[in-house]
Structures are given as C-alpha cells and as structure tokens.
Automatic annotation (TrEMBL):
InterPro entries: RNA_pol_sigma-70-like, RNA_pol_sigma-70_dom, RNA_pol_sigma70_r2, RNA_pol_sigma70_r4_t2, RNA_pol_sigma_r2, RNA_pol_sigma_r3/r4-like, WH-like_DNA-bd_sf. SUPFAM superfamilies: Sigma2 domain of RNA polymerase sigma factors, Sigma3 and sigma4 domains of RNA polymerase sigma factors. Residues 29-93 form the RNA polymerase sigma-70 region domain. The keyword Transcription applies. Keywords: Sigma factor, Transcription, Transcription regulation. The keyword Transcription regulation applies. This is Sigma-70 family RNA polymerase sigma factor. Residues 134-180 form the RNA polymerase sigma factor 70 region 4 type domain. The lineage of its organism: Bacteria, Pseudomonadati, Bacteroidota, Flavobacteriia, Flavobacteriales. Belongs to the sigma-70 factor family. ECF subfamily. NCBIfam families: sigma70-ECF. Pfam families: Sigma70_r2, Sigma70_r4_2.
Length: 187
C-alpha cells in the first residue's frame, strides 16, 4: 500500500467518524471522476451534476458501510450508476403512465396549467413555512440556500460571491438541504 492509499484510508476513517473536513476532502478528490462518468452516460450537464450530488449524498450517508478492501472510487461509481439507472426507470415509467392515461388525446385535452387563487394561496403559505424553517439553519447554510434557490445563482457564482471553492459550496448546499429536511421532518 502506498502513501496515497494510506492517506485515502485515513480520510475515509475520519469521514466515518463524522469529520466534515474529511467529507470535503473526499468530494474534492472524487468529484471530477463521478461527474465525468455521469456526463458520458447522460450527455446532459444538469443530469450529470444532479446525479453526482446525489451520489455523494448517498455515499456520505452510507459511508460506514464502505469496505476498505474495495476501491473507494469504484464504490462511488457503482452508487452513481445505480442512481442513473433509477432515474432512467423513473422517467420511462412516467412516460408510459402518461401515454396510458392520455390515450394519445393530448391535443384535445389542453389543460389550463396556470395556478388558481387557491393554488397561489397554498404556494404562499408553503413558502412562508419554508422560509421559517430556513431561518432555523445556521447563517452560512441560510446564505448558500438563499443564493442557490431564491437568487438562482450557479455553484460558481455562489463560490465567487462567498469567495470559497466550488466544491465547498456543493458540500455546504448538500449539508444545508439535509439539515433543512431534518427540520421539516421533525416539525
């Protein structure tokens, strides 16, 4: 085993112990491998980025199950491949369900998709509730969520705004979304 492999195993051990810096280090080290793999599979930058973020999220959730006798990059790519297969199945199912339900009468069934007054009220109430939950997060998590979802900034724009590396922004956003989901779930 060489020094790089030892260092990687030490980083994985720290990640298993819940050290945030170890997660950032693993994300920095393997992001391009997973993203490049997905970009070749999907031929779509948005899908590749979404699947890559989901890959790291799932991997970090299940990091304690990683077996050191296997390559970490292979484990990540396997998770990523399975997420992509799930996405394809879901899209295929949605298309088939839409065809079965529509019976090819889409031309005759043009629905008004603009929100009704009730829909607008529900949207406003949900937004107010979501903003209340976001305010329970630490300020740096609030900032990254606001920049990404309310200001619709890209990762690189947020990185420039906060003067941090793009991968740190991705990890912060991932962590912020997890914490927000926990707050909402425990409500």
């Amino acid at each position: 085993m060489n020094k790089t492999e030892d260092n990687l195993l030490e980083t994985i051990a720290r990640a298993k112990a819940g050290k945030q810096i170890a997660f950032s280090s693993l994300l920095d080290r393997f992001w391009n491998d997973v993203y490049g793999f997905q970009l070749k599979r999907t031929n779509n930058e948005n899908d590749a980025e979404d699947i890559t973020v989901q890959t790291f999220s799932k991997a970090f959730d299940k990091i304690k199950t990683f077996d050191e006798k296997y390559e970490f990059s292979t484990w990540l790519i396997t998770i990523s491949k399975n997420l992509h297969v799930d996405l394809i199945r879901k899209r295929k199912k949605n298309i088939l369900t839409g065809l079965e339900n529509g019976k090819n009468n889409e031309v005759h069934n043009v629905a008004d998709e603009s929100p009704s007054a009730e829909d607008n009220l529900i949207i406003e109430q949900n937004l107010a509730s979501l903003l209340g939950h976001i305010k329970k997060l630490k300020p740096h998590y609030q900032k990254v969520i606001n920049l990404r979802y309310f200001n619709e900034m890209s990762y690189s724009e947020i990185a420039n705004e906060l003067n941090e590396p793009v991968n740190n922004i991705k990890v912060k956003l991932l962590r912020a979304k997890k914490l927000l989901a926990e707050i909402i779930k425990n409500k």
